[in-house]
């Protein structure tokens, strides 16, 4: 049944949001801490278990895959309701703060992606690593 | 006749949104094929059109929810709202390899702390450069550069003035819009083509909407990995903003 997949997805998300809200209360912040991430982990664990014990069939999978295929349209709808006017109106201070934060974060992606990587994989990329580290130092 | 049409469209807002978004995506993929020969992905164009429409909607309605403030298109607000957005994000985790996530775990955690700290320091420094030298304003604007949720949460906790709050939200919005648009262009230069770098990317950027949109336009297979870390970012920012980051800023500025 298709609905089993949708129900599993919904249950994982609700459980994740509850845990995220509880975490937020526990550490005293007004935000959901990692609810979506926890829901994703739950979905990975449950669906893997159900598939291995053959209790999840192709139809149930369809119930999850439909939503994952709707992801991009939903993101387009999300983009269409951003407060772009406010972002533009914020003036140079907001613009510069936002742009610099993004540019520096982009630059750090390859550097941090190397942390905790196995040594042999690191050796392969040692050349570009040196090349990347230099401009970053001057940017700090 | 026209009244009947609009009343049907308004009453069935979500379905109107499905039709409008579907048409937008169809146009986007057509533009991608005709204008860029498929080089710029259709979904990237669709997201840019979405943002442009949000600007037009915001200007014409004077509201804060882009196109969703236009009554005829209020269903867009539901379709792209937090509930369905998070539902769709969670669904992308189906079929994700748990091993990949565990392998990238450490760099994911490092990226989260680095991401919050880096964006905060940049935002606070820019605030100082523009003459906001009191610790409360600096912290609030710095927190806004983390995400547009962390900014007002921090500002409210510290009692920042409303213009500073607005500025912090604007900084966060600029960041989120820029990540949505810029990611597909930057991806080849920062090695954003595997689950590990996607997790690091999500942890560094942190803006859920930016990461979700940016990765969707780059490679939809990477979405779950980026979203996984990004979801912890705002929480971490809300935790650190009014506490350690404010205390550090005050100590530095001697307020």
From TrEMBL, chain A:
Transmembrane segment boundaries: 30-47, 59-80, 92-113
GO cellular component, one term: membrane
Matches recorded under InterPro entries: Maln_transptMadL (IPR004690)
Pfam families for this protein: MadL
Superkingdom per UniProt: Bacteria
The entry's keywords: Membrane, Transmembrane, Transmembrane helix
Protein's UniProt keywords contain Transmembrane helix: yes
The protein's name: Malonate transporter, MadL subunit
Species lineage: Bacteria, Pseudomonadati, Pseudomonadota, Alphaproteobacteria, Rhodospirillales
UniProtKB/TrEMBL annotation, chain B:
Domain Malonate/sodium symporter MadM subunit N-terminal, chain residue ranges per copy: 6-253
InterPro entries: Mal/Na_symporter_MadM (IPR004691), Mal/Na_symporter_MadM_N (IPR018402)
Superkingdom of source: Bacteria
GO molecular function: sodium:malonate symporter activity
Listed transmembrane segments: 12-31, 43-60, 72-96, 108-132, 138-160, 172-192, 198-218, 230-253
UniProt keyword terms in alphabetical order: Membrane, Transmembrane, Transmembrane helix
Keyword Secreted: no
Pfam families in alphabetical order: MadM
Protein name, per record: Malonate transporter, MadM subunit
Species assigned in the record: Azospirillum oryzae
């Amino acid at each position: 049944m298709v609905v089993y997949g949708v129900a599993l997805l919904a249950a994982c998300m609700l459980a994740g949001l509850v845990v995220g809200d509880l975490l937020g209360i526990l550490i005293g912040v007004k935000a959901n801490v990692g609810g979506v991430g926890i829901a994703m982990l739950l979905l990975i664990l449950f669906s893997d278990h159900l598939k291995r014990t053959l209790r999840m069939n192709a139809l149930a999978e369809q119930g999850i895959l439909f939503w994952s295929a709707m992801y991009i349209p939903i993101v387009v709808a999300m983009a269409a309701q951003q407060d772009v006017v406010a972002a533009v109106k914020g003036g140079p201070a907001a613009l510069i703060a936002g742009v610099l934060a993004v540019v520096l974060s982009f630059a750090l992606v390859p550097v941090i992606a190397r942390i905790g990587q196995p040594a042999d994989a690191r050796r392969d990329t040692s050349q570009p690593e040196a090349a990347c580290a230099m401009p970053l130092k001057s940017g700090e | 006749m026209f009244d009947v049409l609009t009343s049907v469209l308004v009453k069935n807002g979500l379905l109107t949104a499905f039709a409008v978004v579907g048409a937008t995506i169809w146009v986007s993929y057509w533009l991608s094929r005709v204008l860029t020969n498929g080089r710029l992905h259709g979904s990237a164009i669709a997201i840019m059109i979405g943002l442009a429409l949000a600007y037009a909607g915001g200007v014409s309605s004077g509201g804060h929810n882009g196109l969703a403030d236009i009554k005829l298109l209020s269903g867009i607000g539901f379709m792209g709202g937090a509930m369905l957005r998070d539902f769709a994000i969670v669904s992308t985790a189906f079929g994700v390899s748990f091993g990949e996530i565990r392998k990238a775990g450490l760099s994911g955690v490092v990226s989260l702390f680095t991401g919050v700290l880096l964006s905060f320091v940049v935002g606070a420094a820019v605030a100082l450069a523009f003459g906001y030298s009191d610790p409360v304003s600096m912290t609030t604007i710095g927190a806004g550069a983390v995400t547009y949720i962390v900014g007002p949460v921090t500002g409210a906790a510290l009692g920042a003035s409303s213009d500073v709050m607005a500025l912090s939200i604007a900084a966060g919005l600029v960041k989120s819009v820029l990540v949505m648009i810029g990611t597909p262009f930057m991806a080849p230069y920062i090695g954003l083509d595997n689950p590990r770098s996607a997790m690091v990317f999500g942890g560094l950027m942190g803006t859920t909407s930016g990461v979700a949109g940016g990765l969707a336009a780059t490679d939809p297979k990477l979405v779950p990995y980026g979203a996984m870390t990004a979801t912890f970012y705002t929480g971490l920012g809300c935790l650190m903003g009014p506490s350690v980051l404010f205390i550090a800023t005050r100590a530095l500025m001697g307020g």
